[in-house]
Amino acid sequence: MFMCVYCQWITDVAHRIDYKDARGKQRTWETAERRTRPKGGDIDGVGIVAILEKSTGPEIVLQKQFRPPIDKVCIEVPAGLVDEGETAEQAAIRELKEETGYVAKVAETTPMMFNDPGFCNTNLRMIHVIIDMSLPENQDPKPQLEDDEFIEVFTTPLTSLWAECKRLEAGGYAIDARVGTLAEGIEIAKQFSLS
């Protein structure tokens, strides 16, 4: 067993797929396969784009978490697995509360996305949530981490997420692809005046 860097969930390594390519040539592909998907479910996990509504502008909730496969502390969005009988939205609200202490409302659910389809079958939905900072429960949030979780929560303004990713990488942190892709998307939208 190993932990997939992008997936961050336990998967099985020893799996080969025999297939025919576009020209009909027989090939073998080495892959990892998710072993913890809920029975009857189609979604493995959730990534959470958690936005704090602040008078100074929107901020995103991020985490610092050591990841053994890359031997670095990684900058990530809150995330986790979907439990049996749970919707992706319910999982996101639960995981956000456990990992950050914040209580939020779901604003958007993305289509199913695949983390690293050239390597493993793990998928997720990104769940966008809004954290109302006027609520008493969000004034002094307390994470409810498991014994093997060591997560540092921080926020950064959405408008400077790209610059923050660059600063953190220069400081030795690894940037999770979900965070980096979101930051890059914001920069592209600014560059091409998309709204």
UniProtKB/TrEMBL annotation:
Q: Which family does it belong to?
A: Belongs to the Nudix hydrolase family.
Tell me which domain of life the UniProt entry assigns to the organism this sequence originates from.
Eukaryota
Q: Name one GO cellular component term.
A: cytosol
SUPFAM superfamilies registered for this protein in UniProt: Nudix
Molecular function in Gene Ontology = ADP-ribose diphosphatase activity
InterPro entries the record matches: Nudix_hydrolase (IPR020476), NUDIX_hydrolase-like_dom_sf (IPR015797), NUDIX_hydrolase_CS (IPR020084), NUDIX_hydrolase_dom (IPR000086)
Q: Which residues form the signal peptide?
A: none
Keywords, ordered alphabetically: Hydrolase
Annotated Nudix hydrolase domain residues: 41-181
- Does the keyword Hydrolase belong to this entry? yes
Q: State the name under which the record lists this protein.
A: Nudix hydrolase domain-containing protein
Q: Which PROSITE patterns match?
A: NUDIX, NUDIX_BOX
Which Gene3D superfamilies does this chain map to? Nucleoside Triphosphate Pyrophosphohydrolase
Q: Output one GO BP term.
A: ribose phosphate metabolic process
